[in-house]
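Many introductory courses stop at the sequence. We go one step further.
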Amino acid sequence: MKALKTAGLIVCILTALASLVAGMAFYRDTLVDRWLPPVFAGVVGAALAPWLRGFISRVTPMSDRVYTTLSAFIFSGSLVYGITLTANSVFADRDDARNCDAEVVDRHVEQRTRYRRVGRGRMTPAGHYNAYCVTVSLPDGRLKTYETTQSRYNAVRSGSHFTLSVCPGFLGYDIILNPRF
């Protein structure tokens, strides 16, 4: 029975992580303030936590009321975050796409560290690489930063204009259809 509850805990953790990763992946092309989806997920997660506490205590080895409530809050909040952004992008109305003019505000190079595996669970720095980033200003004043290739980075200049296709999402957050410029 203990092994089954441990497996339930692992499934809950993996489901929450998968939902968070999906939400972060779809956030990249979603035009919404950074604070809105996490706050929405936190409010709904706090509202759902008392009802999910019993489920969490049945499928995980935790029995303490505080831990199960906190786990239910994290689990439900991450699910709501991922489902909200995924549903908004997947079920977007792509037929109502409109073109908008965007301007390159800034372009910069970020130097990041590459790591190599030395042994089991040990990573050491193995040099640096460059990530080429372009910050774009949309007509409504929002700024979005995109990572691009070196050749595209060299071709784009600050102040240059290009057209983006934007469509309304299922939940009202606009989606950028072609983030490559």
